[in-house]
Structures are given as structure tokens and as C-alpha cells.
Amino acid sequence: MASPEEKLAELGVELPEAPAPAAAYVPFARTGSLVLTAGQLPVVDGKLEVTGKLGAGVDLETGQRLARQAAINILAQAKAAAGDLGFVRVVKLTCFVASDPSFTEQHLVANGASEFLGEVLGDNGVHARSAVGVPVLPLDAPVEIEAILELG
User: Fold this and answer.
1) Residue 20 located in a structural domain
2) Could you read off the pLDDT of 76-111 as tens digits, one per residue?
3) 21 belongs to a structural domain
4) CA-to-CA distance for 4 and 95, rounded, in angstroms?
5) Which residue of 28, 39, 102, 112 has the lowest C-beta tally within 10 Å?
6) Within a domain: residue 27?
7) What is the residue range of 90's domain?
8) Distance between CA 5 and CA 25 in Å, rounded?
9) Would you place residue 1 in the very low, low, confident or very high pLDDT band (cuts 50, 70, 90)?
10) Is the pTM higher than 0.85?
11) What digits encode the pLDDT tens for the residues 105-139?
12) Total structural domains in the chain?
């Protein structure tokens, strides 16, 4: 079976340097074998490609792609915490989706992250999850995701 790094390469994904925090917090905290990430925005090269709300200018497919990018940034934090993705298990994701009040498919947006993590980590990427609609996120990001990870 391919390692997570090999799966990323097959998918054409190169992990970025773990994004630095945007305010007064750390990007992850480790306690025992658990790593809790700060919320990860779908930033690429330090910038949000898309801003706004799902159901009001941001469509479902774009939301799923942004959730996938946030998951890539979660893996970058995991690698910074563990040094190697081969020993990382995703326990839980919380996906926050900036949503128009009529938008009710937050769970489908979150699938962009969940499916990607399962593809890269196999059984270690299968997790519990919450998908929550919120009125606004930092920097007008459409998606923010935090994770609880277990290091093997």
C-alpha cells in the first residue's frame, strides 16, 4: 500500500509549509498522542483564492475544492507536528462553512475534505465530523476546518 506521501504525489499535491497563524495562537497544540489544529483556511501561497459565502456567490463545487485545500493545510500542520504522515490518524474534523441562510448543504462542502483525507490516509483518514453553517469566517473565507489527529 502506498504511503501518504506517495498518495499525495500520485494526486499531484505538494504539501506547503505549514501555514503560520494569522493572530495570537499556535497553529497546533500537542497533548499526549493527540494533535489539535487551529482552524485552517483554504489558503494557497498565503492568499485566499475565493472569498464569500456558500449559496451567495460561492457554489457547492467551489466550496468542496476549498474544503480540500483546507485539508491539505491540515496535513501540512500534521506533518509539522509529527514529522511524517505515516503515523497520523484523523479522529475528527469540524468544518465551518460561511453560508447564506438558505444554504443547507454544509455536509456536502465538508465532503471535499473528508474524501481527500480518506484518499490520502486510507483507513487513518476516516473520521467523525461536524459541518456547521456560520454567518462569516475570518478574512471572509468560505470554509475553515479544524482537526483532532492522533499520532501512532
Assistant:
1) no
2) 999 999 998 988 899 999 999 999 999 999 999 999
3) no
4) 22
5) 102
6) no
7) 4-14+33-151
8) 28
9) confident
10) yes
11) 999 999 999 999 999 999 999 999 999 999 999 99
12) 1
Residue type for position 147: A
Q: How many CB atoms lie within 10 A of CB 68?
A: 21
Residue written as cell 474534523? 93
Nearest to 2 by CA among 98, 122, 93, 152: 122
**CATH number for the domain that contains residue 76:** 3.30.1330.40
Measured distance CA(123)–CA(28) in Å, rounded: 23
Residue closest to 96 by CA, chosen among 79, 109, 87, 78: 109
Q: Write the DSSP symbol of residue 70.
A: H
Q: Which three cell numbers stand for residue 16?
A: 506547503
Contacts of residue 141, Cβ cutoff 8 Å, sequence gap at least 6: 41, 42, 48, 51, 66, 98
**2 — pLDDT class (breaks 50, 70, 90):** confident
